[in-house]
Amino acid sequence: MTAVQASALVSGPGYVEATRNGSAGFDVEGVRRQFPILAEAPYAKPLVYLDSAATSQKPHAVIDAISGFYAKDNANVHRGVHYLSERATEAYEGARAKAQGFLNAAHTQEIVFTRGTTESINLVAQTYAKTHLGVDDEVLITAMEHHSNIVPWQMICTERGARLRVAPIDDAGELLLDELDALVGPRTKLVAVTHVSNVLGTINPIRRIVDIAHARGARVLVDGAQAAPHLNVDVAALGCDFYALSGHKMYGPTGIGVLYGRRELLEEMPPYQGGGDMIASVSFESTVYNKVPYKFEAGTPDLAGAVGLGAAIDFLDGLRHEALAAHEHDVLAYGIEALSEVPGLQLIGTARAKAGVISFLVDGVHPHDIGTILDREGIAVRTGHHCAQPLMSRLGVAATVRASLGCYNTRQDIDALVAGLNAVRETFR
Amino acid sequence: MSSDLRGLYQDVVVDHGRHPRNFRELEGATRTAEGVNLLCGDQLTLYVKLGDGQIEDIAFQGVGCAISQASASLMTTALKGKNQEEALALFGRVHAMLTEGPNGEVPPEELGKLAVLSGVWEFPMRVKCATLAWHTLRSALESESTGDRVSTE
User: Fold this and answer.
1) Same domain, A205 and A73
2) How far apart are the CA of B64 and the nearest CA of chain A, in angstroms?
3) pLDDT tens digit string along A49-75?
4) Which ranges constitute the DSSP H helices of B11-152?
5) Whether residue A69 sits in one domain with residue A30
6) What's the complex ipTM?
7) Are the Cβ atoms of B65 and A423 closer than 8 angstroms?
8) Residue numbers of A annotated as active site
9) What is the pTM of this model?
10) What DSSP letter does each residue of B61-76 carry, written as one string?
11) Does A207 share its domain with A309?
12) Contacts with B9 from chain A: Cβ below 8 Å
């Protein structure tokens, strides 16, 4: 049984059912034609883009939505009484409604637009955590977190005299749930965990973590940056209190992201930044803050970015989730199998439930040398510590090569990667 | 393989990357410095034994890609017996070769064996891999103490 097939055994809310249906029902060539950048030819080689976990490429629909907003709808939102301001407000709030639908949130007020996952997490750290963490209270994260789900908690824990604790993982890159369970105590105020690991591809059992945390009165924030492009994210089914994502990793533009938060939590949280749009009334003596979500959106937001994110959500919806998930799992399973057969190659991260990411090492060749040689073959991979240095220490490696997948990747891309790795072995034989 | 890749990974580079020379801790080192490349995690510790302004011995330890290891290895072989001024002058010439390329002021052929690193110039993302050891050298030679830390970021 392959690692990917096994993921069906641990499926549940928020999980993608693994199938062996391959690409049936998924027109990957049609999808590829929607991404103009795939026609680029670095070093006169066809582009093989295997770095979607860093940022995904953008379909015409997203590029056109951004340019269309500036060409036809541009004005500031929530302010003007004029025609364009109304259109811009409609477009911006329309994007919020799309994000609400995408996440299955109960209310549009639960969708806060941010600059991305990093800002979403910082927002919660600087508002919710700031007002709920006391001396000796605890925030629990895991050993597989991205720096953006470590450092904001370190900062606020230092400020409040609270402790940051870390749930361990096993050598396959799976969270040790019993250990996590034992670490959630009466002082735990918040559990912050990634849905999908950006280095290992591990899909974490969020619903079970939420049940453990809620049973002891702790809130749960989920870093969904890597999950949003691959999984059917349903915050109601997951039961989490906060969910953070980035537009640019799910075929949308950079500079826009979402923080989902339960309405009752958002309402009691203090504002994040002060400025325009986040107020109801201002005098020099005092200010009454606006209602949620506007309380958290000080200043003119990235309007075109939100519209682009809305277009990306429409694009993903149009792919039909089951067909997309089956296609991506087919390419992932094919990739894991093909790379396993490359002599001297060691896969890093062999969790039973995985999405989108294959990390590996090649015996005797440093990841950066591999990255450079693959690059000249037109193959884009990421090499390095992937902004997860504590995880690298846990794994005992300085760096890995990471091939990460998007909706446009094919088995042929994997074949090109394997051929590229043969060129690597040729150079370092 | 493309010709610029062949220029980057010349046999000598691959050899020194895989079997770095003077790769050890140096007993009696009078200067040490640590170099790190924060972006990629490359790290090296350079040991220099100076006597009467001469580099009597030089060695290094660390982890990194073939380019950074080969550059450090080739550097140690080139510097043994040189005095401080000569070593710093060589730093300047190697740095120029790596950052300015063949049209720079220093033709690679004037650098002897170190010329095998001339192909790095065509790979802007990899220049700092090759310069790490050299920046660490400069730090070691220009400081009076031991234990300095430099970064190529």
Assistant:
1) yes
2) 7
3) 999 999 999 999 999 999 999 999 999
4) 11-18, 66-79, 84-100, 127-142
5) no
6) 0.88
7) no
8) 387
9) 0.91
10) EEE--HHHHHHHHHHH
11) yes
12) 369, 373, 427-428
